[in-house]
Amino acid sequence: MAATTTTVISLPVPPPGYQDPMTSSNDPTPLEERSISNPTNLEAFGQGTGAVAHAIERWDYPRINTYRLAAIFFSFLNFGMNDGSYGALVPYIEMDYQLSYIVTSLVFLSPFAGYTVAALFSDRLHLFFGRRGIAIFAPSCKCIGYVVIATHPPYPAVVAILAIVGLGNGLTDAAWNAWIGQLAHTNQLLGLLHGLYGLGATIAPLIATSMITKANLGWWTFFYMMSALAAVEILTGAAAFWSETGSKYTRVNRADGEGKGMTRQALRQKVTWICAAFLLCYVGLEVSLGGWVVNFMIRVRHGEPFSSGMTATGFWLGITVGRVVLGFITPRIGERVAVSVYLVISVSLELIFWLVPQFIVSAVAVSLLGFFIGPIFPSTVIAVTKLLPSEMHVAAIGFSAAVGGGGAAL
């Protein structure tokens, strides 16, 4: 292997007067110089033989990143709609198939199987097919699953097909968190990304509940819309990442230029296991609240079906606003301190939600709870990208997300 050196090269300079809207005038980040980790190939920059250039890119530079970011944002909006819909649909799935709580909860367990497969093979898929392959394959899995569910199949088929949907969401989660984690202004961008996830989870219960209670449609008709959105996601992702092939991914993310998987190496890192255990608890809390709050409000707080469905909307809206607003505050006080404060407040709100037997109090408490737990997932992803080398990001984030999916199943 060639010796590693550090080279400063000149990259294209933006037009005069250009200023990154996400950078304050007091703390500009220059584009003219980038520190390049150089093991083997500088041909792409016309510097002769040698290596991969590792420059920190921006969300809007090179320009193609703007379109890629838009495609990723749309993908996470759909991702959020998928996860947010379960809470509103579970009571009607339970009644339709005449199921018990335990059997109904299989809709949360099944996607975990798909997440596990994604964690094991996400890095390999990147090496063989690049981000272009992920951008096509992941939403295709979701589209296939949604089309099958929209036919109103028997319940065992619903459970089985949700594993394929989980595979698509697991690949999406690992790939796009890792890609944005390598850009400048990571805190803000991940806050917006997961804010869009929260937005999707916010509007999904509203749409699903309205379709069922107001339009008197079957719960499965919600997946007509989800199928169409997944098809659009395939087109936008393929167009934005068409040039991101497997060979390019290997050249940029492997110092030796060889397509060696990094899953085993990532699992040897203590950081990976700590973040995975943390997300096991966090995602378990998030999905449990979002998935079962409607049932709780109907059966324990004796609310009306529509108003109870809106509490799920309030919870996911809180997550959306929290990730966007607190995403700009968290880096100012530091992720460690911020997450500690958010957790203390969240525990207090959870106690209020559980112990005060009033519908309004519970609805307000669960919305505020969503606001303060919202930034925790993005902050965990940032910790992974800061503490591990870039070639391990996909494998480590994919594994942590899969373990988090286990929390949802539990």
Structural notes for this entry:
The chain is mainly α and 410 residues long. Helix content is 72%, strand content 3%. The protein has 14 helices and two strands, in the order ββαααααααααααααα. It has helices at residues 64-97, 101-104, 106-150, 155-181, 186-214, 222-240, 246-253, 263-267, 270-299, 305-333, 335-355, 359-373, 376-387, 393-409; strands at residues 5-10, 33-38. The protein has a two-stranded antiparallel ribbon. α1 runs parallel beside α5 (186-214), α9 (270-299) packs antiparallel against α12 (359-373) and α11 packs antiparallel against α12. It is globular, with a radius of gyration of 22 Å.
Give the helices and strands, then pairings.
Layout lengths: L4 E6 L22 E6 L25 H34 L3 H4 L1 H45 L4 H27 L4 H29 L7 H19 L5 H8 L9 H5 L2 H30 L5 H29 L1 H21 L3 H15 L2 H12 L5 H17 L1
Antiparallel strand pairs: 1-2
Helix pairs in contact: 1-4, 1-5, 1-6, 1-9, 3-4, 3-6, 3-7, 3-14, 4-14, 5-10, 5-13, 9-10, 9-12, 9-13, 9-14, 10-11, 10-12, 11-12
